[in-house]
Design goal:
alpha/beta, 30% helix, globular
């Protein structure tokens, strides 16, 4: 059985699902075990979904299995750091060498997900199931010359990004700020009116607002990366030290400016 485990935050799960679409011919459409589901960890106030809710939204729940992992699956974690080979199985993990794996347990490695070209079918699915049903946010985003995404939560490096957001404010004086931490957003952008900061209860609403922005100031996260990719924004800015590892090199149709 070939399975793909989903883990991490929303942006990383989208990369894993894109990989699923790229290798879909390897997954049985008869068996419901094409996607193995693990709980997404919640970090502080991040509005992360459960994978099942997300997969139901995307119409992919028929591929799901929630079978428990075996002790050997867990024991294999941490064996190796050979992260350049695409292998298939129960986890997306960057610490396992294929030579150690028994035949029933094969895996997709984490870094491989960032090297797979974006699949048009998957991109269209995200637009039709997530973005277009939230078109009510077009009027909100259009009232501002840019939408800033201030991602906090588990990204401790966000605390060092004040210079990046200040430079962004020099370019766009009338931004809307979408964030999971209002207090941190006010610290990073003290000039911003509190009424221009959104901390919604829906990560999908936040995502849609970013996609409808005229210009996007990305945070240091894959959440922003995907929203920018699906958007029709005139300009997308991201930190010059976009720190997602040396293996993060996804194909992109967008021109992204560094600040």
């Amino acid at each position: 059985m070939v399975t793909l485990a989903l883990h991490g935050g929303f942006g990383n799960v989208l990369f894993q699902l894109n990989l699923f679409f790229a290798y879909r011919h390897l997954f049985s459409k008869v068996s419901p075990e094409g996607l193995h589901v693990r709980a997404i960890r919640k970090a502080r106030r991040l509005n992360n979904p459960s994978q099942l809710v997300l997969l139901e939204t995307l119409g992919l729940s028929s591929f799901c299995s929630q079978s428990p992992q075996s002790p050997i699956d867990y024991a294999l974690l941490g064996i190796s750091r050979n992260a350049n080979t695409v292998v298939f199985g129960r986890y997306c993990n960057d610490f396992i060498s294929p030579c150690f794996l028994p035949e029933p347990v094969k895996m997709f490695k984490t870094y491989a997900q960032y090297q797979v070209p974006l699949q048009e079918e998957f991109v269209d699915l995200l637009k039709s199931r997530i973005v277009k049903p939230r078109s009510q946010f077009i009027s909100l985003a259009s009232r501002y010359d840019a939408v800033f995404h201030v991602r906090c939560g588990d990204l401790s490096r966000t605390t060092n990004m004040s210079g990046y957001y200040r430079k962004s404010f020099d370019i766009y004086k009338n931004p809307l700020v979408v964030t999971d931490d209002r207090n941190e957003a006010l610290r990073l952008l003290p000039e911003i009116s509190p009424s221009s900061i959104i901390t919604s209860d829906s990560y999908l609403d936040d995502f849609a607002i970013l996609t409808y922005a005229s210009n996007i100031i990305s945070s240091n996260s894959t959440f922003s990366w995907w929203a920018s990719e699906l958007s029709e924004a005139y300009s997308v800015y991201e930190p010059s030290d976009f720190l997602l590892g040396a293996h993060f090199n996804p194909a992109s149709r967008r021109l992204r400016h560094k600040l």
